[in-house]
Amino acid sequence: MSLHRVLKAHSFLALLAVVLFASTLLGQEQQPPSKVDIFAGYSWLHAGYDRSVPNAQENIARGFTVSGTYFLNRNLGLTIDSGNHFGDCSPRIFTVDAGPTLRFPAGRVTPFVHALAGLHRMELLSPFGNDNNWGVIAGGGLDLRVARHLSLRLIQADYEYADHSYNYGLLQPTLSSVRLSAGVVWQFGAVGAPEVFKGSAACSVQPTAVFAGESVTATASGSGFNPKRTIVYTWSGSGVKVSGSSASIQIDTAGLLPGTYQVAATLSDGSRTGVASCTTGFTVRQANPPTISCSSSPSTVQAGGTSTITSNAGSPDGRRLTYGYAASAGSITGNTTTAILDTRDAQPGTITVTCSASDDRTPPLTASSITMVGVQSPAPPPPTAEFIAREKRLALHSIYFGTAKPTSANPTGGLLPSQEHTLVALAADFQTYLKDKPDAHLTLEGHADPRGSVEYNQALSERRVGRTKSFLVEQGVPAANIQTEAFGKQQDLTDAEVRRAVERNPELSPADRQRLLDHMDAIILASNRRVDITLSNAGQKAQESVREYPFNAADSLSLLDTHETGKVAKSPKAPARKRKDTK
Asked: Is the pLDDT of residue 165 over 90?
């Protein structure tokens, strides 16, 4: 087999190997193909003459190839190729060709094929000279990108064909050549470049301020990523635990102290430029308990009554509140801002009511306040009509004594029948009154007219209250319900007070009233020989005797007698005495 055929076979196999090698690299990461390629490299040529050329060199090992390709799109380009091969002997072959090139970019590897036509010049030694003619070049190769603008042409294998004629047709060699080249390709610009996606990210939280235990939602959104790729989310936190791989995650703030916390998200679509990060933060606020004050209305009730308890509460943090109430006695109902205290089962005294407010945290913060409710003894039932009538009948009258009565020799005497009758009626009414008012009592106050010494009058008034008390006891009035006081002449009625009593006495006719006013000296003395009776009862105003002198009593003359012997003075003139108004 001739060398020419061997080289043709080897060229074909080399081109096939290039194509197979390129196919193994398909699928690698895409890079934008260049717009312009400039190639310069070493070239080896097997001329392949079809007839003997004098002094010709078959294999030309010295040569170079320079080409430039302008690509119209990703695959198709127009190429100008220039080759120059010169050896130690003739011939010297120079070519300039142009034509289309097809390339197949696949990441860093780009196989290509081209078909060129143009000038083919062959120079022989004298006497043949030079001959220019048309020629064609067809072949392909493989480029490997090693930098952004630089590739290595690992191999370029071409087949060249050309006819020449020398000395008027005496020598007409035909070249069927094989050209092998390798070198460097400078690449400029880009055509059909894939879209470059450069992602960006933004983070947010909602809400931005919470209390410990409340949930926070963190969200990351991306833009500028390759829509054909899936974005992967990776979360991290500063001082807070985060988990999840989706665009939104929940952050558990339980147990966090008040302060500011940061979370970050990294978004990636798996490409070199498809990575972006963002950060955001939230604040854990200081939790404040509720405030509360409570009051009662009314603050004092009768036993068995009710009081309204009102809570005035609020949450500085704006939380929802629930209310509770407790009472030291009685029963309380209600769970809103008001409650009702029922004192039916409470004893008289003070009830402490505790009001509380709790917020909606877990666990809740609480606050409490107290108010007091006074419980009084039950009010007495209203008096019956019979009681009111009896109390009206219990009209107290002063008891009057004769002059110097009772005596020290007979302290149990001195009560005239009219005065005993008054005391009998009073004793009967008072005993009935005690059934409704067991704590009631009578106070007996003894007096004496201004005659006599202080000591005498004091002893006399004591005998008078003593006799009155003993008579009431004889009628059934308990001695424990009777009190006595003796004033002698210390609190005698004045002349003016006696005169007014006479003038207002409803039992006297005008004539009797005038006759008595004409004898006022005796009337004044008689009006001060008395025992006043006062009715006292807890919770009621004391009821005093009316001090109406019994002028119409059958024994009234004995009461008016100013002499110890019991004789009535017939003269209107009283015994001469010096007197002045006394208290």
From this structure: no
**What pTM was estimated for this model as a whole?**
0.39
Residues 569, 522 contacting (CB under 8 angstroms): yes
* Mean per-residue pLDDT over the chain, rounded: 85
Q: Are 74 and 105 contacting, i.e. CB atoms less than 8 angstroms apart?
A: yes
Sign of CA dihedral 491, 496, 499, 505: negative
In this structure, the answer to whether residues 212 and 354 fall within a common structural domain is no
Cβ neighbours of 244 (radius 10 Å): 14
Helix pair 385-393, 417-436: axis angle to 10 deg: 150
**Residue 314: strand, helix, or coil:** strand
Write out pLDDT tens, residues 497-526: 888 888 888 888 888 888 888 888 888 888
Q: Containing domain of residue 234, as a range?
A: 200-285
d(CA 397, CA 195): 126
Which of helix, strand or coil describes residue 515?
A: helix
Which residues make beta-bridge pairs with 223?
A: 200
Q: Find the CATH number of the domain harbouring 249.
A: 2.60.40.10
Say whether both 214 and 177 belong to one domain. no
Q: Is residue 264 within 8 Å of 233, Cβ to Cβ?
A: no
Question: Is the domain of 31 the same as that of 90?
Answer: yes
Per-residue pLDDT, 183: 96
Residue 298 lies in a domain: yes
